[in-house]
Amino acid sequence: MARIVLPTLEDMKPEQRAVYAQTVAGRRGSAPANVMVWLQSPNLAARAQKLGECVRYETVLPARLSELAILIVARHWSAHYEWAVHEVEAARAGVTPAVIAAIRDNTTPSFDKPADEAVYAFSRALVADGRVPTPTFDALVLALGSRAAVELTALVGYYTMVAMTLNTFEIPAPKGLKGLE
Q1: pTM for this structure?
Q2: Which of 13, 33, 54, 55 would disulfide-bridge 155, Cβ 3.0–4.6 Å?
Q3: Are 74 and 83 in contact (CB under 8 A)?
Q4: What is the pLDDT of residue 80?
Q5: How far apart are CA 119 and CA 128, in angstroms?
Q6: Burial (CB count <10 Å: 0-12, 13-18, 19+), residue 89
Q7: Is 37:162 a contact under the CB 8 Å cutoff?
Q8: Would you state the pLDDT for residue 132?
Q9: Mean pLDDT by 10-residue block, N- to C-terminus, for the chain (181 residues)?
Q10: Which helix H or strand E contains 91, and what residues bound it?
């Protein structure tokens, strides 16, 4: 059970409704649970949801690689809601069931593409240590470029904030989706 009651549209104050409407009108088409929690602070919610839209949809990373990194963050922090939602999104974006299962099971997946392997290694190092070793960094830059390194770092940081929000307020996986065990 969540530690916070997520507001309904009827219960929202005008500034909350404005952020909610902005979020729903954006690329997501809905307001995920983390945004609903952040609505307790409408200014934070407005800024954070725009950053989330940017790092998820407006980077040089293809959706497959973004979703791969998001799964790594969700698994690292055992964020049930984040995992459940992005497991579906990752499969839709082309992350293979074997890779998804390996991440879920905390084992290293096998990759066919160097870019996938580079994103995996970079993201795992960043969430595990808060740093990326030079060879891992260099492999990502070689595969995808320095802009991708900047944007991937921001994506991992943003989804860490999402995971911490969801975990702090004990937000479960959405109904009908399976979280982590």
Answers
A1: 0.95
A2: 55
A3: yes
A4: 95
A5: 14
A6: middle
A7: no
A8: 98
A9: 89 96 93 96 97 96 98 97 97 98 97 97 98 98 98 98 97 88 74
A10: helix 80-93
Using alpha carbons only, how large is the chain's radius of gyration in Å? Answer: 16
Of the candidate CATH numbers 1.20.1290.10, 3.30.200.20, 1.10.1790.10, 3.30.870.10, the domain formed by 63-168 belongs to 1.20.1290.10
Q: Which residues neighbour 160 within 8 Å (Cβ) at sequence distance 6 or greater?
A: 73, 77, 127
pLDDT at residue 2, rounded to an integer:
81
What is the domain partition of the chain in residue ranges?
9-57, 63-168
Helices (H), 95-133: 97-104, 114-129
Q: Which of 53, 61, 46 is nearest to 16 (CA)?
A: 46
Q: d(Cα 4, Cα 35) in Å, to the nearest integer?
A: 13
* Token pair recorded at residue 137: 């960094």
